[in-house]
Amino acid sequence: MAPQTALLSRGRTSGCCGAQRAQRRRQPAVTVQATLLPLPASETRSTVDRLKKLRLITAVKTPYLANGKFDLPAYDALVSRQIEKGVEGLIVGGTTGEGHLMSWDEHVMLIAHTVNAFGDKIAVIGNTGSNSTREALHATEQGFAVGMHASLQINPYYGKTSKAGLLNHFNAVLNEGPAIVYNVPGRTGQDIPDDVVLDICSHSNFLGMKECTGNPRIKNYTSKGVNCWSGNDDESHDARHTAGAVGVISVTSNVIPGLMHGLMAAPDAATNASLKELFSWLFCEPNPIALNTALAMCGLVRPVFRLPYVPLSRAQREKGAALLTAVQEHIPGCTGVRVMEDHEFILVGRH
């Protein structure tokens, strides 16, 4: 990003009657110059190279208090356990973290808090993308200003654009700093075409794709030198070890970070197979409904949902309780799994 300079100056002005006496009483002229300089190229390159190698990134859950505001002590405990179990990066305010249910003030505050509390221990990747390029640029500038290491950028959703529009949008946000580009057509309604990816991957700030369309697509990209993370937990083991992905941006690692770390560290077909039913259950409804329910059932967050999300049905909670109990020893901080009653959940429409 080009250097930005703000110059504020106040000088003396001449007067008529009594001007000399007035000038003697005035303070000396003050000139304030503030310059925001980009990182040196060598430091930026080093940061990009490190971020490209992250194997396990958690799309971290945002816990809430009963009034719907952020529960920062619960968030800090969750992040601390992620770090202890080998997670290398966090997506803050992503779909899983419900960034779309936050104001931008909340969003940037949570990024700043994460950087301040954990930025020396884990990579902080702020989800500052938007379907408005202006909004994405502003949020991304704010995220980098408070210290995030990289951003997550989505293609414009709902109000979709052309290939030329995608290229302009992504190049604009990539100019702000290191970024992962996120392709999830099931949510955006538009796939990012291969030729767009092959164009933007040459940008010096392009970290890679979070790709949710499957391992054949990932293998095609990695064979052409495009860095990729799987966006699908159930496919992530094979993406890492057979399709060439560097790792996964995971939802399941909120619950079992140590096991997900193991799946990314070395091939383990048996463990991967044993988790298939849990992976499936965590996506039995649109994410993050099942994850929010699971973390509440494990006693790791308060059972508070910002609408329009609501907890899983009792039948699904009973199924999930059995799956979670089977891996309870791998759920850090969990001392027991409860099905919970419907009345225990709090739904918040205004916060």
UniProtKB/TrEMBL annotation:
User: In which pathway does this enzyme or protein participate?
Assistant: Amino-acid biosynthesis; L-lysine biosynthesis via DAP pathway; (S)-tetrahydrodipicolinate from L-aspartate: step 3/4
Its BP terms in the Gene Ontology are: diaminopimelate biosynthetic process; lysine biosynthetic process via diaminopimelate
> Which Pfam families has this protein been placed in?
DHDPS
- Give the reaction(s) catalysed: L-aspartate 4-semialdehyde + pyruvate = (2S,4S)-4-hydroxy-2,3,4,5-tetrahydrodipicolinate + H2O + H(+)
Provide the residue span(s) of the region labelled Disordered. 1-22
Identify which top EC class this enzyme belongs to. lyase
State the EC number(s). 4.3.3.7
Q: What keyword terms does UniProt attach to this protein?
A: Amino-acid biosynthesis, Diaminopimelate biosynthesis, Lyase, Lysine biosynthesis, Schiff base
Any GO molecular function: 4-hydroxy-tetrahydrodipicolinate synthase activity
Residues folding into a coiled coil are none
Matching entries from HAMAP family are given as: DapA
Family, per the entry?
A: Belongs to the DapA family.
- What task does this protein carry out? Catalyzes the condensation of (S)-aspartate-beta-semialdehyde [(S)-ASA] and pyruvate to 4-hydroxy-tetrahydrodipicolinate (HTPA).
UniProt protein name: 4-hydroxy-tetrahydrodipicolinate synthase
